[in-house]
Amino acid sequence: MKEENQIEINNVTHAYQTDDGPLPVLKNLNISVPINSFVAVVGPSGCGKSTLTRLIAGLMMPDEGEVRLHGEVITSPKSSVGMAFQNPVLLEWRSILKNVLLPLEIVSNNLSQKQKVDRAMSLLSLVGLEGFEDKRPSELSGGMRQRASLCRALVHRPEVLILDEPFGALDAFTREDLWQIMHELRKEEAFTTLMITHDLRESVFLADQVVVMSGRPANSQFVLDVTLGNERTLEDLYTEKSVKMLAKLRHEIQIAQGRSTKTEENA
Question: What is the Cα–Cα distance from 164 to 182, expressed in whole angstroms?
Answer without folding.
Answer: 14
